[in-house]
C-alpha cells in the first residue's frame, strides 16, 4: 500500500486528563486515490491528517508512506491549510514560488513553473497582486497553485473550501477534481460536508468522536463529472446519514 | 486639508503670542520671532547651520542605524530562542529605564570626546525599543506561517529570513518609529559633551556667546527636523502596513 496507517492513537493531555483524539486508527490509501475524511467537529480529522502529513507526533502505532516511516513533514507532500497560510508580504507570484526557491533554479525557470500553475488556477491577471487584494476563493486558488508548484505526490487539504460561499465552493470542487485527474496526485481531503465528500471522493472515511476513530469506509462508485441530483448520489448520501444516525442508537443503548 | 489649516492657525497664534511676549522683555533675554528667524536665515547664509545639521544628521544616522540593525538581529535571536531571553530579560529590564545621559561619564571615559559620545547616546536611546518590539513580534508570528515553512521544507535560516522577519516586520517598524523619536531627543544631550559641531553644540555655543536668538534658532531646527523624521518614518510604516495587508494602524 502507498500510505499505511496502522493502529494509530493520539493522546492529548487536557487539564491533567488524557484525551484520546485518535484511538486505534488503521487505514490504507492507494496511490492516486482521492480520499475524504468526513465527520463531525472534534472527531480527529485534523489530527489524523497532521499525523499522516508528519506535523504531529503520534502516541502509538505507525504511519508509512511508500514504505517509509513518517517522522516529520516532507517536501514531497504539501498541506493546504484551512486559512490558506499565504504570506501577505509576497505577491501571488512569489507566494507560488516559495517552495521552489531552495531548488537553485534559474529565475526564468522558476517563473515558468509559477506561471504555469497560476494559469492553471486562472489567476494570470493577478500574479503581481498581494493576497489581501484577492477574494477568499482567489486566495485559496493561490494556495493550491503554491502547493502544486512543488509537484508533490500527496496533497493534504484540511477543509480547504470551508470558508467559501456555495457557488465558489462548487467551482473549486470542480477545479480540484480537474487538477487531480490531470496531475494524478493522491489527495487526502478533510471535510464535514457530506455532499462535498460524495462529490469528490473515491472513498470516504467516516469518523466518530470520543474517542476519535474510524466508523466506516465507503466506496463511492460514481463516475467523474458527477451529477449532484441523481438517485445514485442521494443513495450514497443517505447511506452516510444512516451511519451517522447509528451513533444515536449507540447512545440510546448506552443509556438503557 | 482641514488639518493643515488648523495647524497653520495654531502656528500663527503661537507666533503672535510670542511676538507680544517678546515686546515686554529685553531681547537679550527673550528674542522675538522676527529676530530669531532673521538670525536663523543668517546662520544658513554663512553656511554654519547647514554644517551643524549635516554633522548632527550623520551622527544620528550612524547611531540609529547601528541600533536598528543590532536591535533587530538580537531581537530575532532572542525571540527565536525564547529560553535564552529569559536569562537576559531581567538585565535588559534594569538597563532600559536608565537614561542614556546617566552613562555620559563612562562614555567620556571610554570613548573620549568628539563624535562618538553623541553616537553612543543615540544608540543607547534607540536600541531598547527596537530590541523589545522585535522580540515581542517574533513571539507573535502566526503559527500557520511556521507550518507553511515546514511544509515547504525551508531550512531554519530560511525560516528566519523569509518567514519570521517579514511576518514580524509591521510590529518591528513600530519599535523603529518609537526609537527614532527617543534617539533624536537624546541627540542634543549627546552633542553637548565636548562636541565642536552639531545642533547640540550650537546650543552650548549660543549660550557661551550670549546669543539667545541662535539658541532659539537651534531649538527650532531640532524641533522641525524631529518632526520631519517622524513624518518620514510614519510614511514608511504606513507603506509597510499597506503592503502587508494590515489596516488596523495609521490611516491618517
Ligand atoms: N493540541 C491539542 N491539545 C489538546 N487537545 C487537542 C489538540 N488538538 C486537538 N485536540 C482535541 O482533539 C480532538 C480532535 O481534534 P481535531 O482538530 O482533530 O478535530 P476535527 O475533527 O478536525 O474537528 P473540526 O472539524 O472542528 O476541525 C478535539 O476534541 C480537540 O479538542
Ligand atoms: Mg479540523
Structure report:
The complex is a heterodimer of chains A (256) and B (252). Helices cover 36% and strands 26% of the residues of chain A. Chain A is of the alpha/beta class. Chain A has two domains: 3-76 and 153-255, P-loop containing nucleotide triphosphate hydrolases (Rossmann fold), CATH 3.40.50.300; 86-151, no CATH class. In chain A, α5 links the parallel β7 (154-158) and β8. The N and C termini of chain A lie far apart (42 Å). Mean pLDDT of chain A is 89; it is low at 251-256. Chain B is mainly alpha-helical and 252 residues long. Chain B folds into two domains: 1-30; 32-251, MetI-like fold (Orthogonal Bundle), CATH 1.10.3720.10. In chain B, 81% of the residues lie in helices and 0% in strands. Chain B has ten helices and no strands. The interface between A and B is medium-sized, with 23 and 20 residues. The structure holds adenosine-5'-triphosphate and magnesium ion. Residues 12, 14, 19, 21, 39, 41-47, 192, 212 of chain A line the site of adenosine-5'-triphosphate (ATP).
Q: Looking at the structure, what is the overall shape of chain B?
A: elongated
Structural class of chain B: mainly alpha
Could you state the order of secondary-structure elements of chain A as H and E?
EEEHEEEHHHEHEHEEH
User: How far apart are the termini of chain B?
Assistant: 12 Å
The largest sheet of chain A is: 6 strands, mixed
Poorly predicted segments of chain B: 248-252
Which structural class should the secondary elements of chain A be placed in?
Answer: alpha/beta
Task: Give the terminus-to-terminus CA distance of chain A.
Answer: 42 Å
Q: What is the residue-averaged pLDDT of chain A?
A: 89
Rg of chain B (CA only):
22 Å
Looking at how many chains there are and whether they match, the oligomeric state comes to: heterodimer
Spans of chain A of at least 5 consecutive residues whose pLDDT stays below 50 are: 251-256
Spell out the helices and strands of chain B N to C.
HHHHHHHHHH
Amino acid at each position: 500500500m502507498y500510505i499505511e496507517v496502522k493502529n494509530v492513537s493520539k493522546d492529548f493531555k487536557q487539564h491533567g486528563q488524557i484525551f484520546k483524539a485518535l484511538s486505534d486508527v488503521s487505514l490504507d490509501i492507494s496511490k492516486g486515490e482521492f480520499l475524504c475524511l468526513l465527520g463531525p467537529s472534534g472527531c480527529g480529522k485534523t489530527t489524523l491528517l497532521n499525523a499522516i502529513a508528519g506535523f504531529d507526533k503520534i502516541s502509538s502505532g505507525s504511519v508509512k508512506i511508500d514504505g517509509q516511516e513518517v517522522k516529520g513533514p516532507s517536501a514531497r507532500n504539501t498541506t493546504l491549510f484551512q486559512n490558506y497560510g499565504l504570506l501577505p508580504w509576497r505577491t501571488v507570484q512569489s507566494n507560488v514560488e516559495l517552495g521552489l526557491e531552495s531548488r537553485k533554479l534559474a529565475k526564468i525557470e522558476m517563473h515558468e513553473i509559477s506561471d504555469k500553475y497560476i494559469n492553471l488556477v486562472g489567476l494570470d491577471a493577478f500574479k503581481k497582486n498581494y493576497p489581501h487584494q484577492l477574494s477568499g476563493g482567489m486566495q485559496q486558488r493561490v494556495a493550491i497553485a503554491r502547493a502544486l508548484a512543488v509537484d508533490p505526490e500527496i496533497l493534504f487539504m484540511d477543509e480547504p473550501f470551508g470558508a467559501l460561499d456555495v457557488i465558489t465552493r462548487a467551482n473549486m470542487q470542480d477545479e480540484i477534481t480537474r487538477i487531480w485527474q490531470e496531475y494524478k496526485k493522491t489527495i487526502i481531503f478533510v471535510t464535514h460536508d457530506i455532499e462535498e465528500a460524495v462529490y469528490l471522493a473515491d472513498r470516504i472515511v467516516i469518523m466518530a468522536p470520543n474517542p476519535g476513530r474510524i466508523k466506516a469506509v465507503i466506496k463511492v462508485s460514481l463516475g467523474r463529472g458527477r451529477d449532484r441530483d441523481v438517485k445514485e448520489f442521494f443513495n450514497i448520501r443517505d447511506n452516510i446519514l444512516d451511519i451517522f444516525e447509528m451513533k444515536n442508537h449507540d447512545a440510546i443503548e448506552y443509556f438503557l | 486639508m482641514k488639518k493643515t489649516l488648523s495647524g497653520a492657525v495654531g502656528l500663527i497664534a503661537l507666533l503672535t503670542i510670542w511676538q507680544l511676549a517678546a515686546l515686554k522683555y529685553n531681547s537679550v533675554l527673550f528674542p522675538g520671532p522676527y529676530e530669531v528667524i532673521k538670525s536663523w536665515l543668517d546662520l544658513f547664509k554663512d553656511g554654519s547651520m547647514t554644517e551643524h545639521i549635516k554633522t548632527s544628521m550623520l551622527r544620528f544616522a550612524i547611531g540609529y542605524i547601528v541600533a536598528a540593525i543590532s536591535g533587530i538581529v538580537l531581537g530575532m535571536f532572542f525571540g527565536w530562542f525564547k529560553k535564552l531571553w529569559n536569562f537576559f530579560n531581567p538585565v535588559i529590564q534594569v538597563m532600559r529605564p536608565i537614561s542614556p545621559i546617566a552613562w555620559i561619564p563612562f562614555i567620556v571615559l571610554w570613548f573620549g570626546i568628539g563624535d562618538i559620545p553623541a553616537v553612543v547616546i543615540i544608540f543607547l536611546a534607540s536600541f531598547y525599543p527596537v530590541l523589545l518590539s522585535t522580540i515581542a513580534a517574533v513571539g507573535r508570528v502566526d503559527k500557520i506561517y511556521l507550518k507553511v515553512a515546514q511544509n515547504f521544507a525551508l531550512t531554519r535560516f530560511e525560516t528566519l529570513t523569509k518567514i519570521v522577519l517579514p511576518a514580524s516586520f509591521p510590529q518591528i517598524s513600530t519599535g523603529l518609529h518609537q526609537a527614532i523619536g527617543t534617539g533624536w531627543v537624546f541627540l542634543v544631550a549627546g552633542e553637548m559633551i565636548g562636541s565642536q559641531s552639531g545642533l547640540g553644540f550650537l546650543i552650548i555655543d549660543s549660550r557661551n556667546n550670549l546669543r539667545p536668538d541662535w539658541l532659539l534658532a537651534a531649538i527650532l531646527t531640532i524641533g522641525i527636523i524631529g518632526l520631519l523624521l517622524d513624518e518620514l518614518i510614519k510614511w514608511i510604516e504606513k507603506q509597510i502596513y499597506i503592503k502587508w495587508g494590515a489596516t488596523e494602524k495609521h490611516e491618517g
